UniProtKB/TrEMBL annotation:
GO molecular-function terms, A-Z: DNA binding; DNA-binding transcription factor activity
Lineage: Bacteria, Bacillati, Bacillota, Bacilli, Bacillales
Record's keyword terms, sorted: DNA-binding, Transcription, Transcription regulation
PROSITE patterns, alphabetized: HTH_MARR_2 (PS50995)
PANTHER family per the UniProt record, alphabetical: TRANSCRIPTIONAL REGULATOR, MARR (PTHR42756), TRANSCRIPTIONAL REPRESSOR OF EMRAB OPERON (PTHR42756:SF1)
Pfam families xrefs: MarR (PF01047)
Keyword Ribonucleoprotein: no
Protein known as: MarR family transcriptional regulator
Keyword field contains Methyltransferase: no
Highest taxon listed in the record's lineage: Bacteria
Stretches assigned to the HTH marR-type domain: 1-141
Length: 146
């Protein structure tokens, strides 16, 4: 591996940390989002994309233990953001978003995406941002297929 490529990978890793930190700070500034971690909001996103999903599938998707997801889901349910229902197989439960959960997730995305847009709009064209995210999508797919 060339030194230039090695440096690029190091910069990519650093960028991921800085972006995540920025998102956490943006969410912490928004009153409606203060009580929720980035992991909880990511759980809501996964549930939105996969209605009636099981806790096992959420745990697998997020790469965490089922007990962590169970605790996370209990908090989200207590806050009225998700509903847990018996699945077709009575041993499994399915989880779906409530309207309140949808609204919170929409708010979180609006806040973060708006801040990112404000930050980037004077430095990158719309096309550059779209191209960059398409490259990230390819990377994500390669990692998922690994």
């Amino acid at each position: 591996m060339s030194e230039e490529l090695r440096t690029s990978f190091a910069k990519f890793r650093e960028a991921m940390w800085v972006i995540n930190d920025y998102i956490v700070r943006v969410m912490a500034e928004e009153e409606a989002l203060k009580g929720y971690s980035q992991q909880q909001l990511e759980t809501l996103r996964i549930i939105r994309e996969n209605p009636n999903i099981s806790q096992n599938t959420i745990a697998s998707t997020q790469g965490v233990f089922k007990t962590a997801i169970s605790n996370r889901i209990k908090k989200l349910e207590a806050d009225g953001l998700v509903v847990i229902q018996p699945g077709e197989d009575m041993r499994k439960k399915s989880i779906s978003l409530t309207e309140k959960g949808m609204n919170l997730l929409d708010k979180a995305e609006d806040v973060v995406y708006s801040k990112l847009d404000q930050l980037l709009e004077n430095h990158f064209t719309k096309e550059e941002v779209i191209y960059f995210t398409k490259q990230l999508d390819k990377t994500v797919q390669l990692l998922k297929d690994e």
